[in-house]
Amino acid sequence: MSAPAKLQEPELARRHRIGKVFEWLCCGSTWFGLVVLAVLLVSVLWQALTWPAPKVKPGASGPTVAKAEDSAIPLSKQFFTNYDSRHPRRAGILAPIWGSLWLIGLVALLSVPIGVGSAIYLEEYANEGHFKRLIQINLSNLAGVPSVVYGILGLTAFVRMFGLFGKGGKTLVLNLGFTTLDVPLPFERSLIAGALTLALLVLPTVIVAAQEALRAVPSSIRIASYALGATQWQTIRHQVLPAAMPGIMTGVILALSRAMGEAAPLMMIGALTFIAYCPGEITNVGDIFRNPHGLVDAPFDKFTALPLQVYNWINRPQADYQHVAAAGIVVLLTILLLMNTAAIVIRHKFQKSTRW
Amino acid sequence: MSLANVASPLTPPKVGLRLQKQFSWVRAREAGVRAVLVSCASLSLITTLAIVYMFFTEAVYAVAPGSTAFFQDVSLWDFLTDTEWSPQFADKHFGILPLLCGTFVIAGIGSLIGLPIGLAAAIYLSEYAKPRFRRAMKPVLEVLAGIPSVVYGYFALVFVTPYVLRPIFQSLLHIDVDIFNAMSAGVVLGVMIIPTVCSLSEDALRAVPRGLREAGYALGSTKYDVSLKVVVPAALSGIVASFLLAISRAIGETMAVSIAAGQMPRLSLNPFRSMETMTAYIVNISLGDTPAGTIEYKSLYAVGFTLFLITLGMNVLAQRVMKRFREVYE
Fold first, then answer.
1. Would the N or C end of chain A have less CB density within 10 A of its end CB?
2. Residue B77: pLDDT above 50?
3. What residue in B sits closest to A8 (Cα-Cα)?
4. How many CA atoms lie within 13 A of A125 on its CB side?
5. Nearest CB to B30; choose among A47, A118, A232
6. Residues 176 to 215 of B: which have CB under 8 A from any A CB?
């Protein structure tokens, strides 16, 4: 029966050929992303593990002697324990690591309760009406606002506080019982200003993710809870939220990993990049117990963060710093990869165990 | 007619026993929780209002006494038509055109690369790929989307320009390629928007019902015909929306372009020279210690406002397209 088909459709072979070419094109496009990712990772890793070959200048008095404190490769053990340095081979990443950790912690503290609260209101309380529609439209528009605009907002609202406190600013002294807390107003270029800015940036993402997780909880759970006499908040607190938790956690971790990689808003609020101390002078976990006052002071210290430090190194003229930047990128990508893996693991684990 | 006259089981009886809500701590807590949640949800509205207020007072009309906003010092006409952008020079010019030009050249190169590749990948994943391949490929795209833009900027500067652009354009075609150039920024921008285009378009393609494809095959179409002439047109609204969102993201992208494209505001279409985008200008002005209240400082808000309006416009357009031209299938 194949012969008549050929007679009816002399073009068929050509059409199949076109189809095949198209399929290969599409397949190639799909692989393109993977290939670029591989090239990117390999080139960054290669740069992070080697120093550039020294340029031998004619007439120079021999190669410069390597000093004992210089590291053998950019991504060495020293790299994690040193502060930034004017000598590329002694530059380290201690301050930006602690800065980024503080930042992520504060962003999580600020954005998770507010984001989940908004999602609960929108999904569980709000009626289908103008207010809910307004907030939904507003959220989808906020999600599309470029991060640098959030940076401008942070600069105006948190660093300068719209100029409300005059030229010199004020200091608010809070008594916490065991210690006093000096809050500079406006916040200037402190960790808390950066954290507030990033919290606003990730809030739409967190809200949308939490909404999806809440929507996935079947309404029979809620109705069963009401039937047993629980109030609305008791139902949410004890039934809906625990059921939606894995979904919320996944969304939150992904949103935080985005905040971790953002540099533009932090540059806008003027986070310094040459910093030789950690927020609250906490340089390892033990310091938290030795110097608990540092925990309270840290949010109002100046800071730097991983992506900022990387940007700063990229912009320096010496070739060695490009390799230091690569080492910083490896650290940053490793942390992001760990966060993403955690999100995927949580998603998988609970997908299997939850059964309605 | 007042409501009280209507006999309804919902209205309390007028005489006799009057039912009243009794105060209880449980009820008080319910109301309290609700109030807290409403204020959480309102915060996103406050954010938007703060952004609008900030741009308005710093760029359009100053409220604080004794200060002026950007457009009270520089006329809107000069801002839109002057072909020079030199706020830091003695002879100050505030023409947004060079920055707009840089932004659109770079976003255009990115779109030329990212949109077709993203769409083709979406077609492959939705129409051709086996489920296992798709499940393996999706996380790769997620990782690609999760890489910080600083890293892409580094990649453009350290890899794309010296190892891709210079061998092709400088050695073979004898076109000078600056170390900072719009092309490398555009290329990495294209890679950055692939995941956005791919995942949104794929959702749209997969929403097209199977019946349409089968009808196509029944009429003797090949897989190519079905994919390109049936499924893609049926999902066109979603695809266009994904394109618009991707372009808006490309316009708002900051770190990659400010690292790779340099800081030279230039009104030209040569992609091998250094250019400055609106976003790059905004971060660069914030790097220097520009005191608040100067005209350079206020120019930040004017450029930011322009950027905000452009991206907002594109996002609203994308939502409109989604809503208006969506084909609804049962």
1. N
2. yes
3. B220
4. 24
5. A232
6. 191, 194-195, 198
B235 contacts B208 by C-beta, under 8 angstroms = yes
Q: What is the per-residue pLDDT across B10-50, written as a single tens digit (0 to 9) for each? A: 555 555 666 777 788 888 899 999 999 999 999 999 999 99
Query: Nearest to residue A144, comparing CAs of B6, B149, B298, B311?
Result: B311
Where are chain A's structural domains? 2-49, 77-353
Q: Which of B307, B67, B54, B72 is nearest to A160 (CA)?
A: B54
- pLDDT reported for residue B37: 93
Residue B289 covered by a domain: yes
CB pairs under 8 A between A and B: 247
- Its CATH class, for the domain covering A77-353, is mainly alpha
User: Is A146 in contact with B301 (Cβ distance < 8 A)?
Assistant: no
Per-residue model confidence (pLDDT) at position A63: 47
- In this structure, what CATH number is given to the domain that contains residue B96? 1.10.3720.10
Does residue B166 lie within any of the structural domains? yes
Contact A163 B282 (CB under 8 A): no
Whether A32 and B307 lie within 8 Å, measured CB to CB:
no
Six token digits for residue A47: 């740069």
Question: For position B4, what pLDDT does the model report?
Answer: 47
Q: How many whole angstroms separate alpha carbon A132 and alpha carbon A125?
A: 10
Domain that holds residue B137: 84-324
Asked whether residue B133 is assigned to any structural domain, the reply reads yes
What is the block-wise mean pLDDT of chain A (356 residues), using blocks of 10 residues? 53 86 92 90 88 62 55 75 78 85 92 94 89 90 91 87 70 71 74 91 93 91 93 92 89 90 87 71 73 74 86 85 89 90 82 60
Nearest CA in chain B to A330: B151
Q: Which ipTM did the prediction report?
A: 0.86
pLDDT confidence of residue A58: 53
For the segment B224-243, the average pLDDT, to the nearest whole number, is 91
Higher pLDDT pick, B194 / B12: B194
Task: Point out the residue among B225, B282, B301 whose CB comes nearest to the CB of A148.
Answer: B282
Instruction: Answer yes or no: is pLDDT of B322 > 70.
Output: yes
Residues of B in contact with A263 (CB under 8 A): 148-150, 254-255
- Report CA torsion sign: A314, A318, A323, A327: negative
Chain A nearest-CA distance from B242, in A, is 12
Interface of B with A in 280-299 (CB under 8 A): 282-283, 286-287, 292
Q: What is the pLDDT of residue A8?
A: 58
Dihedral angle sign, alpha carbons of residues A130, A133, A137, A143 = positive
DSSP-derived 3-state class of residue A61: coil
In a domain, B136, yes or no: yes
